[in-house]
Specification:
The chain is built from 50 helices and 30 strands. It folds into 7 domains: about 150 residues, no CATH class; about 210 residues, 3-Layer(aba) Sandwich (Rossmann fold); about 210 residues, no CATH class; about 120 residues, Alpha-Beta Horseshoe (Leucine-rich repeat, LRR (right-handed beta-alpha superhelix)); about 140 residues, Leucine-rich repeat, LRR (right-handed beta-alpha superhelix), CATH 3.80.10.10; about 170 residues, Alpha-Beta Horseshoe (Leucine-rich repeat, LRR (right-handed beta-alpha superhelix)); about 55 residues, no CATH class. By secondary structure, it is α/β, with parallel strands linked by helices. The radius of gyration is 50 Å and the shape is elongated. Helix 19 packs across helix 20 and helix 40 runs parallel beside helix 41. The chain starts with a helix and ends with a strand. Strands 3-10-4-9-7-5 form a 6-stranded mixed sheet.
Length: about 1250
């Protein structure tokens, strides 16, 4: 048993142990009985009753490894052993038993010590794992030296942690030592080998031995690319690497320049560029503990396998368990504290709807749903939001993912030039052979460009190695050993591939020959073709190419007449052409090794179909076409038309192969498969002419360029050579080119060896047509100099398209062209596009305007030429020279209608510059200079511009600009000189002096002046009050010095609004009359606020308003303020009593410097009210000169009595007039006095 157990796998051990031990793979241990550690002695019989396995350690078991305890530290002496041997057996047995019994306590003490020591060591390791201290070392140590005792220690630890309710610690430990370890082992086994082409027994290579870093860049255009992927590679090959932000594959989820965390990464790349190999390297490095160890779980889920689950409903946990059985029992819902990464590889191979818009929201990892619902919610972050997501896709399918679901966009560019050479040097151990192949590939530009794709490197290496070896073998056979070193470069034989068609034809021949040698033992130089197999595979390739499918399933094969058995046969026969794949745990899939091979086989099928059926594959089933026989030229013309109709160019490479295979030189390589046709040369001439005619149509640059590549496959370079001659002579500026020549020019410029740094239109032809024709070239250049070329708005749609595309363009110079408004608007549309990478746009007349534009673009984050409103409030102007700003504002390309220079430190010189702008022909309609201390001098400068007839400014805002009466006069004069445009003027917060408001207000009455609104008042409340009172009084209160609101003229006007008007600097009111108004305590509080403010108010009449003492006290709060300069206050008949008098007395003692007249007639002063106020008249500090208590008649009586007795009777309690002759008049006057409440006389004689 122990021997068998020693050979068990980990999973088997755990299965065996599950019946008697606590499982390390689940928390089922919660429900088991705890082990009994009581010290009660166990009988020997009990100890020995079990099998030997359960009570001892087998020498053949791995339980004896590691830190297993030593049970025999003391050895019995030889003498004692001899004594035992000579004793009677029964006696000896008795003594042995007695000795054993006597030493049992000591044995168990030693045993306990050893067990405790062992457990302490293991617990210490577990603790360090949980503390993340040297975690990788201890996890590795546990798993490499795994034994039953270590597993038991883990079982005990997990059990007691859960008993202690420390589930998080138990889960973490279990994850690290069980789930994560087993997942890493499984993924390492799966991903450590790489298969170039197709996996066959004995054909694998360790990934680390052949892996070459790929060039991955950050960010790329989010728009759908309408070019064939091969064309995209050709364009990318011309970009300087310095332009791109390179990203290491291992750092995909790290971006120090981004503030937000990266959750979802989308990596784009054309077919065969290395997306899946990058995934393989990323996963392998993690599984081997080299990189990204902060990620706890990685789950690679290829779409090609998930397609097989399209119709099923399953939970996310079920999906993971099906792909990774070793994770069974893991609870994903508690994994928020861990980083979990899902790698969704091959979005382009996905046959699910990927319906982000309509799929329901799903957040439960254990509830089943359709696979599409699971994946869309996983990507959006509704399902397992803490998980990281990495999606790989070919470019066309990448648009299936909404941009707002992507945190980082990367693109695999494949191999750069250095990496291409590195690949070949790794591929061939013979340095000379590697060098020869590299040199040959470099000779053909189209081949060298294609080597950006790793799979094409492999195809090229396979073909060129085979050709090179065959040549050398032939040389040796012919006894020409001296020439054995002859290289590919020196060989001019036609069978050395120089075009794509030649390369792929050789590749097919070589693969078929290899399979014949392997399976049939054939070693002849000729190829034995299996026409039926190639025809069937070709039909599959063509049908699926039309559907844009690269992964096929049993149903796809059956539709082409291929059963599963045949598919396996074809996969075996065409080992490196067509492959059969079995998923991790799911079904079988099929594909061609690379998309380009599928396209080549599809093109070959088209020729085979024509050979066999005398019909084109493009002929649809119909009675008329069924009977029509077609020849080669019909097929080729139809294919050209079909390819040109394609929106995304998916037939471009197919067309290249189809045309290339029509050449006799290539058909000779397929002898025995295709019928040789003597008319092929004539067909070639006809199709070349047909293609050239196509250039007469208005083709897109992408389609035109592909047609030139097609001509290259047909060995026709006449157009290209003609254009190269023109270029060498520099004769384009005056030449009238045909459409075909224009297309050739574009092709030559786009396929030049070096990236086009600078495109200068003047070197070609200064016209809109030339720009439109060469827009594809402009798109690839870094700088486009289009200045002084007489361009009009006709050029702008093409330029806008360039700016909105995935372009290299960083600088565009459009100076001195007549683009007009419509053209600039079109350009601005391109500039606003999210893909626009333009950094410098020049179409301004002066360098000063350019500098201002560049500076403001940096400050504002966008070009001011895109704005209708320019806000430079605060200090945004910075160091920008005012003259440069004015140059920008005066440029015809500026579309600014409103400029805000609020709170800027404007000087007199600044205002002079602004006056220059106003004096120029611009479309500026509003200027806001609020809160800038212009003073009168600055306003006078601005008025110089305002009075110019060319100035069409409609709104001018000058609030809080420290403008006084002189400034107002200047504004009035300017608007009289040029009255036709300004409709609104804001002067709030300034000081107009005595006449400023009137001078400007008079303009409103001038029939010639367009001014509709002059805003003087700072607050809306004051504006409302002014508007209301204007309606009541028939004129603006701003033009009045006295405001009489006696009676009910206040109406619904709020007291606070009235106070706002009185406190405004534009109010020139010196006297306000609120006689007989229903003023409340609150109204008095508002008036106190007015008195507490800096105003020019000198007189306030509140007569006949029932203020009471409370109201007077509120008013006194204003009177006592030093800022109050009121001179006359009238409070007659206001129901004021002694308390009110006291408050007035106190206020005037606090602020005695201004009030000179106080009217209190008709009030009730009480015993002391009159005296308190009268005393103020004697105070030298008090300015009060007139204090009116009495009405006219009583006042005459008071004066009469004062003249008789020499004292003011209002201050007397007793009056003796017995010695004086009063007369009738005197008696009447005294009678009036006695009746007044202010008279407090008790006795009169």
């Amino acid at each position: 048993m122990s021997e068998k157990r020693g050979k068990m796998s980990l999973s088997q051990k755990q299965s065996v142990r599950s019946g008697s031990h606590v499982s390390v793979k689940s928390d089922r241990s919660k429900h088991l009985e705890p082990p009994n550690f009581s010290e009660k002695k166990t009988s020997i019989k009990s100890v020995r009753s079990g099998s030997h396995v359960s009570s001892s350690v087998s020498v053949k078991s791995d339980r004896s490894k590691g830190d297993g305890p030593n049970f025999s530290e003391e050895t019995t002496s030889r003498t004692k052993r001899l004594q035992y041997e000579t004793l009677d057996p029964d006696l000896q047995s008795h003594r042995n038993h007695k000795n054993f019994t006597d030493s049992l306590l000591q044995i168990f003490q030693d045993l306990e010590s050893k067990i405790i020591t062992f457990l302490k060591k293991e617990l210490e390791k577990f603790k360090k794992i949980l503390q993340k201290e040297d975690m990788q070392y201890f996890v590795k140590d546990f798993n490499e030296n795994r034994c039953s005792m270590k597993e038991a220690a883990l079982d005990l630890t997990l059990y007691f942690l859960r008993e202690m309710k420390q589930d998080e610690a138990a889960d973490t430990l279990e994850d690290e030592l069980v789930f994560i370890h087993q997942l890493k082992c499984s993924l390492k086994k799966k991903y450590q080998c790489v298969f170039e082409g197709i996996a066959k027994q004995g054909d694998s290579t360790l990934l680390k031995n052949i892996y070459t870093d790929l060039y991955i860049t950050q960010g790329c255009s989010e728009q759908v690319n309408t070019e064939h992927e091969v064309r995209q590679i050709e364009v990318a090959s011309r970009r300087h690497e310095s332009q791109e932000i390179q990203v290491k594959c291992k750092n995909l989820f790290e971006a120090p320049e981004q503030d937000t965390q990266i959750r979802t990464v989308l990596t784009k790349g054309v077919a065969g560029i290395g997306k899946s190999v990058s995934v393989q390297k990323f996963v392998l490095d993690w599984a081997e503990g080299k990189e990204n160890q902060d990620i706890s779980f990685i789950f690679p889920l290829p779409f090609r396998e998930m397609n097989l689950k399209e119709q099923e409903k399953l939970s996310l946990m079920d999906l993971i368990t099906q792909f990774f059985p070793e994770t069974k029992g893991m609870n994903l819902r508690r994994r928020n504290q861990f980083k979990v990464l899902f790698i969704l590889d091959g979005l382009d191979e996905c046959r699910l709807p990927v319906n982000f818009k309509d799929n329901e929201t799903w957040s439960d990892v254990s509830s089943p749903a359709s696979l599409d619902v699971l994946l869309t919610n996983l990507i959006k972050g509704d399902l397992l939001p803490s998980a990281l997501i990495w999606i790989t896709s070919r470019p066309a399918a990448a648009s299936k993912i909404p941009p707002d679901c992507i945190d980082r966009l990367t693109e695999i560019r494949g191999f750069n030039d250095a990496q291409k050479e590195e690949y070949f040097r790794k591929r061939f151990t013979d340095e000379n052979q590697a060098k020869e192949i590299i040199d040959h590939v470099k000779q053909s530009k189209s081949l060298f460009i294609m080597c950006h794709i790793p799979v094409f490197c492999w195809i090229s290496a396979t073909v060129l190695q085979n050709i090179l070896e065959e040549k050398r073998n032939n040389v040796v056979k012919n006894n020409q050993a001296d020439d054995a070193s002859k290289t590919l470069q020196e060989s001019n034989t036609e069978d050395t591939p120089k075009t794509l068609t030649q390369m792929y034809t050789h590749f097919l021949r070589f693969q078929i020959q290899q399979s014949r040698r392997k399976y049939d033992g054939e070693h002849t130089p000729d190829v034995s073709w299996d026409k039926e197999a190639i025809f069937s595979l070709g039909k599959l390739a063509f049908d699926q190419l039309e559907r844009n499918n690269v992964i096929f399933y049993d149903t796809d094969l059956e539709a082409c007449g291929i059963d599963v058995y045949k598919a396996s046969v074809y996969s075996g026969m065409c080992t490196q052409i067509f492959k059969e794949e079995t998923g991790i745990v799911l079904g079988t899939m099929y594909c061609f090794v690379h998309l380009s091979i599928q396209e080549f086989i599809a093109a070959l099928y088209a020729h085979l179909f024509l050979d066999i059926n005398k019909k084109s594959i493009f002929v649809h089933e119909s009675t008329e076409q069924e009977n029509k026989s077609e020849n080669m030229i019909d097929l080729l013309k139809t294919a050209v038309d079909k390819a040109l109709e394609s929106d995304n160019g998916h037939l471009d490479l197919f067309l290249r192969f189809l045309l290339g295979l029509s050449l006799q030189s290539n058909q000779r390589l397929l002898q025995g498969l295709l019928t040789q046709n003597n008319r092929n040369d004539q067909s070639r001439k006809e199709i070349v002419q047909y293609i050239k005619q196509k250039f007469e149509a208005n083709l897109s640059p992408e389609r035109s360029i592909n047609l030139f590549y097609c001509l290259n496959e047909l060995n026709d370079q006449t157009l290209v050579k003609d254009i190269q001659t023109h270029l060498s002579k520099g004769s384009f500026s005056s030449a009238d080119l045909s459409p075909a020549q224009w297309s050739a020019l574009v092709f030559v410029l786009l396929t030049s060896e070096e990236e086009l740094e600078e495109f200068e239109l003047q070197k070609f032809k200064k016209s809109d047509e030339c720009l439109i024709r060469l827009s594809a070239v402009i798109k690839t250049s870094k700088r486009a100099l289009l200045n002084d070329c007489g361009l009009t708005d006709k050029s702008c749609p093409a330029l806008a398209t360039v700016l909105g595309s995935d372009t290299n363009l960083k600088e565009l110079n459009m100076n001195n062209n007549n683009l007009q408004d419509s053209g600039v608007e079109l350009l601005c549309t391109g500039l606003k596009n999210i893909n626009c990478k333009l950094e410098i746009l020049r179409f301004l007349k002066s360098p000063a305007a350019e500098e201002a534009c560049e500076y403001l673009t940096g400050v504002l984050g966008k070009s001011p030429l895109l704005l209708k409103e320019l806000d430079l409030s605060g200090d945004k102007l910075g160091d920008l020279d005012w003259e440069k700003l004015s140059a920008l504002l005066m440029d015809s390309h500026s579309k600014l209608e409103k400029i805000i220079l609020n709170n800027c430190e404007l000087t007199e010189k600044s205002c002079s510059v602004l006056a220059t702008v106003l004096s120029s022909k611009t479309i500026l309609k509003e200027m806001n200079l609020n809160n800038s201390r212009l003073l009168d001098s600055g306003v006078k400068e601005i008025c110089e511009g305002l009075k110019n007839p060319v100035c069409e400014l409609k709104i001018l805002k000058l609030s809080d600009c420290s403008i006084s009466e002189e400034g107002y006069k200047a504004l009035s004069s300017a608007l009289r000189s040029n009255p036709s445009h300004l409709i609104e003027l804001d002067l709030t917060g300034n000081d107009p002096g005595p006449s400023g408001v009137k001078q400007l207000s008079d303009l409103l009455q001038d029939g010639l002046c367009s001014l509709k609104t002059i805003r003087f008042l700072k607050s809306p409340a004051a504006e409302e009050a002014c508007e209301y009172l204007t309606g009541v009084l028939g004129k603006s209160p701003l033009l009045l010095k006295e405001l009489d609101l006696s009676g009910d003229k206040l109406g619904d006007l709020d007291g606070e609004k009235l106070s706002a008007l009185l406190m405004d600097s534009h109010s020139k009111l010196e006297k306000i009359i609120l006689n007989n108004c229903e003023l409340t305590e609150k109204s008095c509080s508002v008036l106190a606020t007015v008195l507490s403010s800096k105003t020019i108010l000198k007189e306030m009449n509140l007569n006949n308003s029932r203020l009471l003492d409370s109201g007077v006290k509120e008013i006194c709060e204003g009177l006592k303020k030093p800022v109050c300069e009121l001179k006359i206050l009238k409070l007659s008949d206001c129901s004021i009593s002694e308390e009110g008098y006291k408050a007035l007395s106190s206020a005037l003692r606090s602020n005695p410097s201004h009030l000179i007249e106080l009217d209190l007639t008709g009030n009730d002063p009480g015993p002391s009210g009159v005296k308190q106020l009268s005393d103020l008249l004697q105070d030298p500090n008090c300015q009060l000169k007139t204090l009116r208590f009495l009405g006219p008649a009583a006042d005459e009586g008071c004066q009469y009595v004062t003249g008789i007795v020499g004292k003011n009777p209002l201050l007397l309690r007793e009056l003796n007039l017995s010695e004086h002759e009063l007369g009738d008049t005197g008696v009447n006057q005294i009678s009036a006095l006695l009746q007044d409440k202010h008279c407090t006389l008790n006795t009169m004689k």
